[in-house]
Amino acid sequence: MADFLQQVVSGLASGGVYALLALALVLIYRSTGVVNFAQGEMAMFSTFVCWELIDRGLPYWVAFFATLAISFAGGVLIERLVVHAVSRAAAITVVTVTIGLLIMLNGAAAWIWKGEQRTLENPFGTRTFDVGGVVVAVQDLGILVVSLALVAALWVLFQRTRLGLALRASALNPESSRLHGIRVSWMLALGWGLAAVLGAVAGMLVAPTQGSFDQNLMLPVLIFAFAAAVLGGLDSPLGAVVGGLAVGVILNLVGAYIDFFADLRLPAALLVILAILLLRPHGLFGRAAVRRV
Amino acid sequence: MPLLELEDVQARYGAVQALHGVTLDVDERQVVSVLGANGAGKTTTLRAISGTVRRSGSIRFDGKSLPRSPEAVARSGIAHVPEGRGTFAELSVDENLRLGAYSRRDRSGYERDLAAVVKHFPWLDERRDQQAGTLSGGEQQMLALARAFMSRPRLILVDEPSLGLAPLIVRRLFDVLRAWIDEHGMSALVVEQNANVALQHSERAYVLEVGRVAVSGTADELRGNEAVRRSYLGY
Lengths: 293, 235
Known about the structure:
Chain A is mainly α. Chain A contains 11 helices and 2 strands.
């Protein structure tokens, strides 16, 4: 039993990271109707930025928050310079552009950081503590707390502020929003900025758990996040968070208890995606509506 | 000086020209209606003003040239209740009203104007948490007016308020519109297919035919116009 709970706890920690990235996917999907395939690579790039800042002598948390600011600006810039140019094009065009961004960011990171393995500091230390026989790593707890705190902050932004209301309105009814004086086009850019911040946190949290990382850090994580977003229903922020935690726990348990999947967590995630798309295409919390892909 | 002046305004959707040069004006504290058959350019006239369709020609608002983007037009004091009412169906009644107030600069007046709006539509207050999409058609049209009022506009553009609504509700909508004009000094440009209703509630009217003003005058003049009566009033 203790072992089982331990797997659940560490699954929740990875799940927190998937939730952040899934939330970023949902954020952009809701406002533009497209899946941003570059989301993982944006997060990977942010992680390298953080590594670079620490490498140049900044203390961890200074580098952390500086990375958030840089990522936000980067996300806004990507929307303004690249995505905005195809905003009137068919969804498939925009999706293709995000795949192009994925390849470009991956290549750029490999070029700038030489494709070498880097190590990112673990801000939570390696201590563990014991709760009734369940050994909990402080790092896992830290990841979960930071993830949930960020989710809560976003919830407050979207549900309790004037800007958040404008962001939601722009996603739901852009034409009417413009008639109310909302600068919808900037709201979309802001959405990309926020998605980049979510990704950055996900990347900075997940990198230390891998020991070392290179430009391919986020490729598997993005698949897990896709599974989470699809499970939650692509247009539901709550679904993304629940889906993220669920996918984290499920994959951890499957990996731990079914020998066949011990080293096959990625295919397991793809199976999850496939099963959801077949059985319940609109996910747990999504609306069953016909939408463009 | 009129509050709103359109001069030779033209607009097109791709290759199709919808407005061939519309000239009209709206005075302070007046309700002016735009009548005409389907496809005459009534809705496009409103869209040209609010900037949701590209236009050429001159539009002056309060003596100044009107900007061309919908956001800027909204911020300059023109509220547009579009076809389909522009309801944020997934959001609550309260959030819809807050969005109405989005473009205004003085945020302190929100509570005061909410009270003024609730005075005319008391049911809004009791149902502030209800999802707007679950309101009836008449309620959504009232919410649309209330949302527009929350921006404290100097001019309100209303597209087909009577569409699909019972006569009693239509009458109530126009009564509230008039009351708000009297209380807050606003003007209204209303597009209507139902000419009887429109003339009953406006000072002046324009009749559009294929993208041009065919006839214009006071409501009484138009009611007395033989051709208008036969084509649009049906008696």
